[in-house]
Amino acid sequence: MFRKFLLLITIISIQQIQAQIHIGPGQTYNNIQAASVVVKPGDTVFVHAGSYTGYQGIIGLKGTAAKPIVIMRYKNDLHDISGCWQFQACEHLTFRYLNFKANSTATGRLINMDNNGSCTTQAKYIIFDSCYFSNVTDANSITAFKFGGVDFFEVTNCVFKDIPNCNAFDFNVCHHGLIKGNYLENCQSAGHIKGGASDITMERNTFINASSGNWVVFEFGGDTGPQFYCPNDTFEVRNLRFYSNLIVGCGRGFALSSARDCDVINNTFYNCSGTTFRLLNTSNLYPKLYNNRVENNIFAFGTTAYMNASAQQAGSTYFSNNIYYSLVNANFTGPYWDTPEADLVKESSMRVYGNDTFMFVDTAKKDFHLAMGSPAIAAGKQVAEPSVDVFGYVYKNQRSIGAAEYNSTSNILVPQQNEKYYIYPNPTNTGSIILQSNETTYTHLKAIQIFSATGELVYSQSSFQMLVSIDTKRFSKGLYIVRIAENDFISTQKLIVE
């Protein structure tokens, strides 16, 4: 009898510790603010189907390391949240599978996680995972998602989309964080980290058209008012890491602004319309850059090939082992670097390639795996981090340059047909093939390369007339990959020799 009593007490205790609280239409609580007064460490708050609008303010909601508070979607219920959820001085909170979506009546910020105005009450141990943030159109919001005074945090596997008039996510006065595996598209800017922030890693994020006009995709640093810094933060930003990120199409690329001891390693920057990289002395309190590293990146330039800087001293930033690649010019000699501002930091021995070089599998299809024969393959400088590329492949001991490690089985993929060109006969056993365009001229065609199934380059041509005839008599029987380079993209086709 006594054992049964103990078992009953144990069950009751577990139920008390791990309560399920339901919010939404027809539930006990209409919204998160109403439910927060009863939430205890270890509880899970389920968000049911419905539209949740209006500001919600919560102060001091705290789980524990052993019993975090989880706020998540109920089953697969459709819902949308607008009007801004603000959490202040909270700890051990996890948000999962939630859809934050602004609308015509609530156009502004969606999340504000902060320290309630004091560094002594920093928010801590906050996780946002697999959430969706979209449709913020209010420029006065500054950002759709803001962390202001948050330590030990993760923002992972989230989507930030269609945020045309403000930043997607900002991290001010934050420390010890991970921003990983997120997808950002159609934003004025993806955002910044600043205000005495330190020890934060951004890795394996994808940015598609994530800045416009003169805005950068992302900025490490900036200028922060003196009242916002925490007492021990005598710098604008320090020990930030930008690893294995893919940046495709944007206004301006990336900025190091009054940053120190920051790393920008193994990223791919593709076709920014403005300057691709900036070095700026922006902070009034701590203006100078110091001891930053920019290594193993691919900078793929469109019509603008520009590296921008305010006046830099030797040692502010070290550029090494990057690839500078033109998408529009076969005779590329490298980007323009501001002079004399960048003279003391400009990479002295640049790896420069024109658009007759095959770098990526198929940029027209947004496939940024490295192509067979790419000069980025196994050309990386040996570094400890990052260990994993943007697609989840482990970097090899002799790593590649850029956000994607080369993998001979994954990088061939299934070749995509380019509708502007066709090969005949294919399959072939005639000893020759013809590559013909459905356009009247070949002015856009820059290069053709053919690779065997093992990756060996067996044919290359860079001058063309109306018909391109290729002798295949010396080709062994088997599968080949034909890569076709134009001014602004590369496509692939499959060729079979019988």
Spell out the key features of this protein.
single chain; 498 residues; mainly beta; Immunoglobulin-like; 3 domains; 19-stranded parallel beta sheet; 13-stranded parallel beta sheet
Structure summarized in a few sentences:
The chain has three helices and 43 strands. The model is unreliable at about 1-15 and about 410-420 (pLDDT under 50). It folds into three domains: about 1-120, no CATH class; about 175-415, no CATH class; about 420-495, Immunoglobulin-like.
Task: Provide an overview of this structure.
By secondary structure, this protein is mainly β. It has 3 domains: 1-122, no CATH class; 173-413, no CATH class; 421-497, Immunoglobulin-like, CATH 2.60.40. 5% of the residues lie in helices and 44% in strands. It has 3 helices and 43 strands. It has a 19-stranded parallel β-sheet that branches. Strands 1, 2, 5, 8, 11, 14, 16, 18, 21, 24, 25, 28 and 31 form a 13-stranded parallel β-sheet that branches. A 4-stranded antiparallel β-sheet has the order 40-39-42-43, with no helix packed on it. Strand 42 and strand 43 form a beta hairpin.
